[in-house]
Amino acid sequence: MKRGGSKREEVEAADSGIKLGRLDEFIGFRLRRIQNQLSRDFAAATADRNMRSGLFSSLSIVAANPGISQNELSKAVGLDKSITVQIVDELEKRELAVRERSPTDRRRHALFVTEAGQTYLDELFAILAETEDAVLHQLTRAELALLRELLDRMYLAYDEPGISL
Amino acid sequence: MKRGGSKREEVEAADSGIKLGRLDEFIGFRLRRIQNQLSRDFAAATADRNMRSGLFSSLSIVAANPGISQNELSKAVGLDKSITVQIVDELEKRELAVRERSPTDRRRHALFVTEAGQTYLDELFAILAETEDAVLHQLTRAELALLRELLDRMYLAYDEPGISL
DNA sequence: GAAAGATAGTTGACAATCTCTACGATTGAG
DNA sequence: CTCAATCGTAGAGATTGTCAACTATCTTTC
């Protein structure tokens, strides 16, 4: 690993006197920490909206790929087929998306976002943008672009990414 | 596991056609994506070691804060008291840590890492470092330092962080 | 110094997810 | 036509987190 210098800072959690110790040396820890906060904030901001775990990401993948099959969706989101069934069930029940049998292959269900689903997505994306802004306004535009690039470069280290939202 | 295929899964155009759509615009998405891969890799690399979810982070917090109480640990790790009980139960059963009654306040259990626990931690930290290196070698030293700083700056946007591992 | 209330740890009931396996329908290869 | 693979579905089981008691201690208050 890298940790060249031995500048030993006392790393504590805000007001409690708890130290993080070696955990603090790891990027993964920092990533998780922020990501946790972000998703917590997002969850809080959408508490009234009946959000289920993979629902938002699934819906937005469907929106970006009209006619996608459930199987493809499963792989894209990184969930098991059986979970995708439940999610699509709920999407359909709430009329955010619809299943249509594929005419060419009658085993497949082609998925499409309804207008209500589009509206729902717009709302959630707006909330998400707001949530992120609360944190990102700490960075300049240039820094933000750089951060994006670094994260992408890291992600490309994986030969077969697999989106896993 | 890193390769999440249920059966044989060709490296073919698995996610070739799938677009991310607006999801791709968000930093949180990129964070989660990498963080997911990292923890998946870490889980795979430690599959033989009986890792339970909060166990590693809890143990390392205890190591960094000898004598910490279970309550403090709960808050630090961001888990419910009742889960912490289970985790400490397992830590004790595996002789990685011990509970000792506090002499000043007999309600509290002061937690300490055993030598075996220290060894265990060393191993896991080594694995974690390896796991991260696989991704981080894409970045130069300078970029890595910058990334750290940007992430920290983002995190400090929260007045009352709350570690939540 | 005794009663009332707060706090630490524990337990168990419960709900939400994810994993795994199996099954019917459909397709495609031979 | 036969047989294997794929898509969607369903259900059993494990894991994990939430929540509401309950005990034993401590602290506050009168």
From TrEMBL, chains A, B:
PROSITE patterns found in the cross-reference section: HTH_MARR_2 (PS50995)
Domain of life: Bacteria
Keywords: DNA-binding, Transcription, Transcription regulation
Protein name per Swiss-Prot or TrEMBL: MarR family transcriptional regulator
A single MF term (Gene Ontology): DNA binding
Organism, as annotated: Novosphingobium pentaromativorans
Ranges of residues in domain HTH marR-type: 24-156
Alphabetical list of Pfam families matching this protein: MarR_2 (PF12802)
Entries under InterPro entries matching the protein: HTH_MarR-typ, WH-like_DNA-bd_sf, WH_DNA-bd_sf
